[in-house]
Design goal:
Elements: H1 10-19, E1 23-28, H2 33-40, H3 46-55, E2 57-62, H4 67-73, E3 80-84, E4 90-94, H5 99-115, H6 117-133, H7 144-156, H8 174-187, H9 190-202, E5 217-218, E6 226-227, E7 230-231, H10 232-249, H11 252-269, E8 279-280, H12 284-288, H13 291-294, E9 302-303, H14 308-324, H15 328-345, E10 346-347, E11 351-352, E12 354-356, E13 359-361, H16 366-383, H17 386-403, E14 404-405, E15 410-411, H18 431-447, H19 451-462, H20 475-487, E16 490-495, H21 501-511, E17 518-523, E18 542-547, E19 550-555
Parallel strand pairs: 1-2, 16-17
Antiparallel strand pairs: 1-3, 3-4, 5-6, 7-8, 8-9, 10-11, 12-13, 14-15, 16-18, 18-19
Length: 558
């Protein structure tokens, strides 16, 4: 006998309401080791199965396919075992729960629901009213003090012995390293570079020395005990970190590490038609054996779904790799992926979807639009094909139409769809996603020459001034966006035709340098898109570097 899991659906919630039963919500993932353990222990226990079928409506959700449900109901790890009212409100929960504990937990929750239902539902209603009546945090003024405070938070969480941030379980914090790289590029403070290199060196035990790529995290502070799942998102971030680490430190070992990540992704997570698969399972037996033995075992399961946000991140990392490693094939595959994602996952009226089992699914996720938008801007700067800029603007329109809170001028993490249940009805604003969105609109304002987008970026950042400090190390993404906005861009204008080898040389040189503030454009005097406000001479292939109103040049080499 097995548990008859239901999908998150109207039918499941109607069943719970009709039968007057609480909901058991299992948040799981195909790569998750402890999810598999719970499936093989707790959810195979005959008494547990009996109690669930008699007293609960069981709903199972894949957290990668439904990230909004994941974020609303996560109890601090996966699996998440949550107990809900028939309306989808939380009564309690945890992560992995062993069979004997789960048996008692199920009975206790059911008893609480039956005996105190009226009081419980009344309290839930009261909490909803309080949540809906809560005032939004007031806007504040952007200042470099935000960046300084964020740096202090990062420094106070830095593990000076092992590298990385925080204690066990120890996750790579790619966004924190991005922030430190940006700050080092501006200040040249040696302590920041030491934090970057100590972390990049310290994380090497997370690297799979046989097949390449990085595992998701370590259960030990010294990175020596990996959890063996390999995530597209993790590898996209670390690929970017090691490439940028090379640019700021010139340590060639970081280039080699980046090549290992690229090799793993190309062999295991790259779809030949374009696009990147989501993850590879954490099979402990497979990864613990010696090289000779590993070859005899079946490969751990690969989730071949295309998750747009993660694909956007990896496209940006592949484009960076092609520039730093001077390997055109990475660029070609990144552009191929963008083309396929646009064909499979874009709908003119609804925006972006994920894609799996031959169909688009899971619409209305803000992160998809942000990360793919940033990837299109990266692609535009790299090859100067205006079709990528046009697609980025289409995403900008959808983001403003469906996700922008007109009162706060910040973005919700999802579009509440018709018939949304439980916590999915309540808008939520993710500070990291909003920071990335601000960076997207800031860059778009210069590349498309539309100051209105810069104004929106400022408003988005201002919406979090009074609350950003409550976000622990996630504050790094916000602080990086504030730094980017306040410091302004370093704009590189290259005058001439893209068909000219000299122009291509200048473009490659401009793109090969580290700089999250860099905005690179080729201006062809014969092109209708030539911006008349630029007064540069048009009769020679040259480059100009501008910061604020001050421009240096002409340069014939960069």
């Amino acid at each position: 006998m097995e548990i008859s899991w239901l999908n998150w659906s109207d039918a499941a919630f109607k069943k719970a309401k009709k039968e007057d039963k609480p909901i058991l919500l299992d948040l799981t993932a195909c790569w998750c080791h402890w999810c598999h353990v719970m499936d093989e222990t707790s959810y195979k226990d005959a008494e547990v199965i009996k109690i669930i079928h008699e007293k609960f409506v069981p709903i199972r959700v894949d957290i990668d396919k439904h990230p909004v449900i994941r974020d609303r109901y996560n109890f601090g790890g996966f699996p998440t075992t949550a107990f809900l009212t028939p309306a989808g409100d939380i009564m309690g929960g945890g992560t992995y729960i062993s069979p004997p504990v789960l048996r008692q937990y199920l009975l206790d929750i059911h008893q609480v629901f039956r005996k105190n239902k009226k009081e419980l539902l009344s309290k839930m209603k009261e909490l909803k009213i309080m949540a809906s009546s809560q005032k939004e945090a007031p806007k504040g003024k952007l200042s470099h003090e935000i960046v300084e405070k964020a740096l202090e938070m990062v420094k106070s969480n830095f593990d000076s012995y092992n590298g990385g941030f925080g204690s066990a379980p120890k996750f790579p914090m790619s966004e924190v390293l991005d922030f430190l790289s940006l700050e080092y590029s501006i200040s040249k403070e040696k302590g920041l570079l030491e934090m970057i290199t100590k972390s990049l060196n310290g994380m090497k035990p997370l690297h799979d020395k046989i097949e390449g790529g990085f595992f998701r995290y370590s259960v030990s502070p010294d990175w020596s005990e990996p959890h063996y799942e390999k995530m597209l998102e993790t590898n996209a971030g670390l690929l970017r970190n090691y490439l940028n680490g090379f640019l700021v430190s010139k340590d060639k070992s970081y280039k080699e590490m980046a090549k290992s990540v690229l090799g793993y992704v190309k062999q295991h997570l790259a779809d030949p038609a374009g696009g990147f698969y989501g993850s590879q399972d954490a099979n402990e037996t497979y990864y613990r054996v010696l090289t000779s033995q590993r070859k005899k075992l079946p490969k751990p399961y690969i989730d071949k779904a295309l998750y747009v946000s993660w694909n956007g991140g990896m496209v940006s990392s592949f484009l960076l790799a092609s520039r730093v490693l001077k390997t055109k094939s990475y660029e070609s595959y990144a552009l191929k992926t963008l083309d396929r994602l646009w064909k499979l996952c874009w709908n003119e009226k609804k925006g972006l979807f994920h894609f799996w089992d031959g169909n688009p699914a899971s619409e209305g996720v803000f992160a998809d639009h942000v990360h793919l938008g940033l990837a299109f801007l990266d692609a535009f700067e790299q090859v100067q094909d205006h079709s990528f800029l046009d697609k980025a603007e289409k995403l900008a329109i959808v983001m403003q139409k469906y996700f922008l809170d007109k009162k706060t001028r910040s973005f919700n993490d999802s579009v509440p769809l018709k018939g949304a249940k439980g916590l999915l009805k309540i808008p939520a604003k993710n500070v990291v996603e909003n920071a990335l969105a601000a960076g997207f609109f800031w860059r778009l304002s210069f590349l498309a020459d539309k100051p209105k987008y810069r104004s929106l970026a400022k408003q988005v950042l201002e919406a979090f001034v009074s609350s950003y400090e409550h976000n622990s190390l996630f504050v790094a993404s916000y602080a990086a966006a504030v730094e980017q906005f306040l410091s302004g861009p370093i704009q590189v204008y290259i005058i001439g035709s893209l068909k000219d080898e000299k122009v291509q040389g200048l473009l490659s040189a401009a793109l090969a340098r580290f700089g999250e503030r860099n905005i690179v454009q080729v201006l062809d005097p014969r092109d209708k898109r030539w911006l008349p406000k630029h007064k540069f001479p048009k009769n020679k292939v040259t480059a100009y570097v501008c910061e604020g109103e001050l421009c240096k040049g002409p340069f014939f080499r960069l």
